[in-house]
Amino acid sequence: MNTASTNIQTSSVLTSADLLAHWQGHRALTRRVIEAFPEKEFFEYSVGGMRPFAGMVQELLAIAVPGIRQVAKGSTEELDEHLDQSKTKADILRLWDEATEDINKYWAQIPDERFSDSIVTFGLYEGTVWSSIFYFIDNEIHHRAQAYVFLRSLGIEPPYFWER
Amino acid sequence: MNTASTNIQTSSVLTSADLLAHWQGHRALTRRVIEAFPEKEFFEYSVGGMRPFAGMVQELLAIAVPGIRQVAKGSTEELDEHLDQSKTKADILRLWDEATEDINKYWAQIPDERFSDSIVTFGLYEGTVWSSIFYFIDNEIHHRAQAYVFLRSLGIEPPYFWER
């Protein structure tokens, strides 16, 4: 993001640009997992009484852009997991791609020193900016992995976890 | 880890100590997921033809300490997922706790500037040190989430994802 400052902090664990690329790599994999589901099963199938993957993806969409907008703007955002009334996989994939662009846009507005700030995401969850962003990513990995089990139990080979 | 240097890099996304605490928080949750399984189901139960959770935990144990030892020592490590012949959950939990201590020990030997180095973990996987460590963590989140589905399909309530 900021080449001048990343050159100075040679001992940073990772840079802001690294973290964005890491998240977008995970998001690209999640997109392929959405694509791997048949239309009907994406919205209806689950194991063990859990939500279908479509419900989890709605949660991921509700978190990602509003969450990063709050980081970038200092705005107050509400967590509304029922925002999206789309009813086809193609609609969800379109929203996913719009979110990809929005994340990039808001990320570019986050100064490096912002990551250690305290934040209460969605007015509910206390942490630092970095720990909140990791929560967004980890929560995505968590629900996507559950979708891997749904796909396996449908007899569908999921995308490789290590391909981003 | 190194207070003097972390004070200087105020614009680091997160510090080495932050990343260790993040990983160990995830590892504490994974430990509770292991505990949540009945003895027999831990070793035998799965969904969709996947490995039982015990097999996944053996993989996590095979990666964590050898992986971080390679980062700390520059040693060449082999990935041996069949290292452990333990056959009870209590044995696995003991190995898990030993790994917790070993990770802390090796982590303290990692200089901050090491995280951006290139590395080929287990002689196989190319990346940077930070991306390799994130792979270790992300892979743990991924497999643990699959165990959440196994537990749900057994009618067992898993630990809360957000409690570390």
From TrEMBL, chains A, B:
Highest taxon of the lineage: Bacteria
Alphabetized UniProt keyword annotations: Metal-binding
Pfam family, one: DinB
Record SUPFAM superfamilies: DinB/YfiT-like putative metalloenzymes
Molecular function terms from GO: metal ion binding
Keyword Metal-binding appears in the UniProt entry: yes
UniProt binding sites for a divalent metal cation: 143
Keyword Transcription regulation set for record: no
Protein family according to the UniProt entry: Belongs to the DinB family.
Descriptive protein name: Damage-inducible protein DinB
